[in-house]
Write a structure and sequence with these properties.
Layout: E1 6-7, E2 12-13, E3 18-19, E4 24-25, E5 30-31, E6 36-37, E7 42-43, E8 48-49, E9 54-55, E10 60-61, E11 66-67, E12 72-73, E13 78-79, E14 84-85, E15 112-113, E16 118-119, E17 124-125, E18 130-131, E19 136-137, E20 142-143, E21 151-154, E22 159-163, E23 172-175, E24 178-180, E25 187-191, E26 194-197
Parallel strand pairs: 1-4, 2-5, 3-6, 4-7, 5-8, 6-9, 7-10, 8-11, 9-12, 10-13, 11-14, 12-15, 13-16, 14-17, 15-18, 16-19, 17-20, 19-21
Antiparallel strand pairs: 21-22, 23-24, 24-25, 25-26
Length: 198
């Protein structure tokens, strides 16, 4: 098995982009200038990775997901089909005088996603937000504020309805402030709206 990245002929990968070992870029995907993708990433059909975006190792970007600059993703992040990570707090195509905006007329802000977090299909993360490690954003959610580690958020706007463990399954309350993963048995302690392994 070779360590070289694999890029399908119909994909568009900028010469200045860096693809880590064994990373795969599928049909019609675009990876822009200066983007840095870690090892073992999988970029699905029609996905877009903006200039200077950084992906850790083992990230999975599903078909038609849009990851706009300057997003930063940790290791093992999952971005579901057609999910969007935005980069403009106050979007406008033109200035007040109706002249076309250029790169100098706005300031890009990014979405930051922690290790192991998952963003469901067609979810929208509105920059600048931070999604905590191992958090789970439900399909179709609109995330407009930061999401804590291990949080399960749903809805428009997204709100926390529970906790998930590293396996991704909802945790079950065991004792006061203690949560347990029904699959792995891992135990977590909640204190002040923050969850951490026990």
């Amino acid at each position: 098995m070779t360590d070289a990245p694999v890029v399908q002929p119909s994909a568009d990968v900028a010469d200045s982009a860096h693809l880590g070992p064994r990373t795969r870029v599928w049909h019609l995907a675009q990876v822009r200038e200066g983007a840095r993708l870690g090892a073992d990433c999988n970029i699905g059909r029609g996905a877009y990775i903006g200039p200077d975006v950084v992906l850790g190792d083992s990230c999975k970007i599903q078909n038609y997901a849009l990851v706009y600059e300057p997003a930063r993703l940790g290791d093992g992040v999952f971005i579901g089909p057609a999910a969007v990570l935005t980069n403009d707090e106050f979007p406008r195509a033109v200035n007040p005088d109706v002249t076309l905006k250029s790169a100098d007329d706005w300031h890009a802000v990014g979405v930051t996603i922690g290790t192991g977090a998952s963003i469901g299909a067609r979810a929208v993360c509105i920059a600048p937000v931070t999604i905590g490690a191992w958090a789970l954003v439900a399909a179709g959610a609109v995330v407009a504020k930061d999401v804590p580690d291990y949080a399960l958020v749903v809805g428009v706007p997204a709100r926390r309805i529970g906790w998930v463990g590293r396996v991704g399954k909802p945790l079950v309350a065991d004792a006061d402030g203690v949560w347990v993963c029904p699959e792995s048995g891992e135990r977590y302690l909640e204190s002040g709206g923050v969850l951490a392994p026990e």
